[in-house]
Amino acid sequence: MSDAAAPTREVTAFEGFARRGGLVLALLIAIALVALFAGGRFGMMLAVGLGFGIALEGLRFGFAGPWRAMILRREPAGILAQFLSIGIVSSVAIPLLAAHPGELTGAQAPIGWAMIGGAFVFGAAMQVVLGCGSGTLVNAGSGNPVGLLALPFFAIGSFAGAYHLIWWTDLGSLPIATLSGWQGLLVTWAALLLTAALFLRLGRPDARRIPRRLVIAAILLAALAIANLLIAGQPWGVVYGLGLWAAKGFTALGGDLSGSAFWSAPGTDRILQGSILTDYTSLTNIGLIAGAFVTAAWRNGGLSQKLPSYPIGAWLAVIVAGFLLGYSSRLAFGCNVGAFFSGISTGSLHGWVWFVAAFAGAFLGVRLRPMLGLEARQ
Amino acid sequence: MTRKFTASLAIAFLATLILFDQATAELNPYQAPPAFAFGSGLASAGGFCGALPQ
């Protein structure tokens, strides 16, 4: 080791320490400012969102990727980790919802034609961009250009889908059906175990073990989702907040929302007039993006990866798929987070129907992705 | 060009969004709800993607 090399390494270590210290300080200041100027509950919700972003990016836990791995390579570990996390949340959420009705609400929505079709389209679109509701935000925050481009169109699509929501639900839907109380919890556990067993059977024998990193991520996500429910009184969601951002932009540009039964409803109008720093899904969405950014910036060389080069048609496909992610998830009453993760874990039957329809759509999306120029054709 | 550029754009997007929000809506911490919905006795009233308009 030369004498000249030592000071250089020392400076590098100091720079790394300063960078990471600065990132932690920035997060703490952001949480404190929101708590101070908006209220303690909202500061805590930002902290929960940051936790989601850090856990998802830091431990590489996702939804779109594991579904793709199961379809293409019969690797079930990622999906099993999702079921583990949902199972943990359901163990707390379903009994609490039964004991505290009104104070706490689940992600409960009706099953209908538009809901099933929306989930199918969402499943296909999330394989095209390889990013789901949470994944698109995390990808954007960590500098993935596909996620970054899809994000604004996801928001516009969510706004448009909500604008037309009542027309779509009028096509036909069933009353809301839920699994509640201890019996509901037992049925949810049984359904999760049966589905996990099915994926284990369909999966490759050498790919059945869930890596430790995903087990830790599943437990962390479950803890954060339970915190989300206890603090906000509602489960973790994504797409409502994105649509709200676009709706605010629409009205700022002079747009009129009186023609939409959704956006002109008194409850929605109240939220629209307020700050996004008092909207739970907006706060967790901001936290997802910022948390992913901090995690990527924390790693040495985490943001030095070169940007990929795609043909122009692929970028256009990302724009269309981003819009469809937003539009379809409103018709489906949620994305992989609001419908699948939170729906099943709070006992909504629509979460199970969403999963079946979206997984079927994912088969189409996996085949569309190379055709649209987003990867080498197989 | 690296991810540093696109990640910075994502943070710039968030900063713009919050600045725009603060220019069009006001915050009042004195009207904030209790820290936890659980145990507050108040009905949940936040927007959610699974909810129909109220």
From TrEMBL, chain A:
Keywords (A to Z) from UniProt? Cell inner membrane, Cell membrane, Membrane, Transmembrane, Transmembrane helix, Transport
User: Can you name a GO cellular component term?
Assistant: plasma membrane
Pfam families listed in its UniProt record: Sulf_transp
Taking the first listed entry, what is the main subcellular location of this protein, grouped into a coarse class? membrane
Transmembrane parts of this sequence: 21-38, 44-65, 77-99, 111-134, 146-168, 180-202, 214-236, 280-298, 310-329, 349-368
Its placement in the membrane is given as: Multi-pass membrane protein
Q: Where in the cell is it found?
A: Cell inner membrane
**Annotated InterPro entries:** Sulf_transp_TsuA/YedE
* Domain of life where this protein originates: Bacteria
Question: What family classification does the UniProt entry report for this protein?
Answer: Belongs to the TsuA/YedE (TC 9.B.102) family.
The name under which this protein is listed is YeeE/YedE family protein
* Source species: Paracoccus onubensis
